[in-house]
């Protein structure tokens, strides 16, 4: 007797957070080893700081770029990418800005918090995609304004269109798998609610219970790579609601 398998679902959303990239060694904002222990984020990751001293904010983000550039996608990223290469429609909705889902081959990705490797002009709004290098040119070629990382800083709003697409996809999926996120920060914290309203089977992969655990039918307690491997292998009874 084998339980439901990934291939039994038509529309799958993987909702990923810091725990997805932890096994790649990507430093996190919060928690043990968070980079905010070394840097006071109020000085480096908000619009006010950027307005005051854009060069200092870039120094910090180029430091982050160097840390993340040294990280590679892990087995979990690759399992999700492979699922997306099958017929089923698979979307990744991520809070991560590291770009590792794209690097592992996932194609349908909504980045709620932007991308560390993209910049937008703080004056004219034009965007540019960078390679995985620190940024040297800090001024927009068109208008001379400052480039800023195209990521959601503390106090920034999420991009409306991205959030709207995420809600629509999550409302209409039949399998919703959260990986390594406690989703305590709004509006990302609302997203599992849309999966519940849409009657998707909801699976939480996280080593620990989270404030959102009650929203899930199935709880897989363990590292992301191990639990995604079992999910992809069709481990019997893995998805039996408990
Ligand atoms: Zn510009």
Automatic annotation (TrEMBL):
Residues 1-241 form the Deacetylase sirtuin-type domain. The active site is at residue 113. The keyword Nucleotide-binding does not apply. Keywords: Metal-binding, NAD, Transferase, Zinc. Its EC number is 2.3.1.286. It comes from the Bacteria. It comes from Nannocystis pusilla. It is an enzyme of class 2 (transferase). InterPro entries: DHS-like_NAD/FAD-binding_dom, NAD-dep_sirtuin_deacylases, Sirtuin, Sirtuin_cat_small_dom_sf, Ssirtuin_cat_dom. The keyword NAD applies. Zn(2+) binds at residues 121, 124, 140, 143. This is protein acetyllysine N-acetyltransferase.
């Amino acid at each position: 007797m084998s339980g439901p398998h990934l291939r039994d679902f038509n529309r799958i959303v993987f909702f990923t957070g810091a725990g997805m990239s932890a096994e790649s060694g990507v430093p996190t904002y919060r928690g043990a080893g968070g980079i905010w222990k070394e840097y006071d984020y109020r000085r480096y990751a908000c619009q006010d700081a950027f307005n005051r001293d854009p060069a200092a904010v870039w120094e910090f983000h180029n430091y982050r770029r160097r840390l993340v550039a040294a990280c590679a996608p892990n087995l979990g990223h690759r399992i999700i990418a492979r699922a997306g290469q099958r017929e089923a429609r698979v979307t990744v909705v991520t809070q991560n800005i590291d770009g590792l889902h794209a690097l592992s081959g996932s194609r349908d990705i909504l980045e709620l918090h932007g991308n560390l490797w993209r910049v937008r002009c703080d004056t004219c709004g034009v965007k540019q995609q960078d390679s995985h290098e620190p940024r040297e040119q800090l001024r927009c070629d068109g208008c001379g304004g400052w480039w800023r990382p195209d990521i959601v800083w503390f106090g920034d709003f999420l991009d409306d269109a991205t959030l709207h697409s995420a809600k629509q996809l999550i409302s209409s999926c039949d399998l919703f798998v959260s990986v390594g996120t406690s989703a305590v920060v709004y509006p990302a914290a609302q997203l599992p609610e849309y999966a519940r309203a849409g009657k998707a089977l909801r699976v939480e992969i996280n080593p620990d219970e989270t404030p959102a655990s009650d929203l899930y039918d199935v709880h897989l307690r363990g590292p992301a790579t191990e639990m995604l491997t079992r999910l992809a292998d069709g481990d019997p009874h893995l998805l039996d609601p408990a």
